[in-house]
Amino acid sequence: MEIIQTELPEVFVLAPRVFGDSRGWFMESWSRRELEKAGLYYAFVQDNHSYSAQKGTLRGLHLQRNPFAQAKLVRCARGAILDVAVDIRRGSPNYRKWVAVELSAENRRQLLVPRGFAHGFLTLTDDVEILYKADQSYAPEADRSIAWNDPAIGIKWGVSSPILSQKDAAAPLLEDSDANFVYGGNI
C-alpha cells in the first residue's frame, strides 16, 4: 500500500496494491501494520456504507464535535466522487484549507481524514457507493454540518446547485458553527 501525503500534512491518500489475473483482482484495502509503519495510528470501530443515486449529490461538510470526533478512511466502491477534507481546527496554520481527491471504483484510492477535519463528497457519476471506516461510533448529539459553499473556505466543487439533504442545505457557515476543534488540542 502506498501512503501519499496531500497538501494538508495530516490528510493522506492510500493507494492499494492491486493483484489481478484472469479471475479478477484482489487488494488489501486497509492494514493497521502498513499505517503504523508510516506513523499513523487508528483503531477503527465502525464501518459505514452509503449510496447516492444521482450524479451531483453532495454530502457534507460533516463532523462530530468533541469528545466524539471521528477520523475516517473513505473509499468509493462504485462510481466516482470528489472527496474533500477541510481543516477546521482553530489556530491551525491550515485552518479553513481543504484538499480534494477523486476517489473511484476504478482508481481504488482512499482518503484518510483525521479528527479535526470536516468531510464531504460530491458524486461525479450516478449510482455511487461509498464505504468508510470511523474510529469513533456515531453520536447523534455531536453530529454537525458546515455549509458546503462557505465562502471563507472556498471549495471548488465544480457545481452551483448540487443535490443536498435538508440538513446540509441549512448548515451554518464555519464561523457560525459550534465546531470545537483546536489545533494542538485534545481531539
Uncertain segments:
none
* Tally of helical runs: 2
For the record, what is the CATH homologous superfamily label? Answer: Jelly Rolls
Beta content: 35-45%
Tell me briefly what this model is:
This protein is mainly beta and 187 residues long. It has helices spanning 32-37, 166-169; strands spanning 2-5, 12-15, 18-21, 24-27, 46-52, 58-64, 72-78, 80-87, 98-104, 110-113, 117-123, 128-134, 143-145.
Describe the model.
The chain is mostly beta strands. It has one domain: Jelly Rolls. It is built from two helices and 13 strands; from the N terminus they run ββββαβββββββββα. The strands form three sheets. It has a six-stranded antiparallel sheet with strand order 1-2-10-7-12-5, with no helix packed on it. A five-stranded antiparallel sheet has the order 9-8-11-6-13, with no helix packed on it. It starts with a strand and ends in an 18-residue tail after the last helix.
What secondary-structure arrangement, pairings included, does this model have?
Elements lengths: L1 E4 L6 E4 L2 E4 L2 E4 L4 H6 L8 E7 L5 E7 L7 E7 L1 E8 L10 E7 L5 E4 L3 E7 L4 E7 L8 E3 L20 H4 L18
Antiparallel strand pairs: 1-2, 2-10, 3-4, 5-12, 6-11, 6-13, 7-10, 7-12, 8-9, 8-11
List descriptors:
13 strands; 187 residues; mainly beta; 5-stranded antiparallel β-sheet; Jelly Rolls
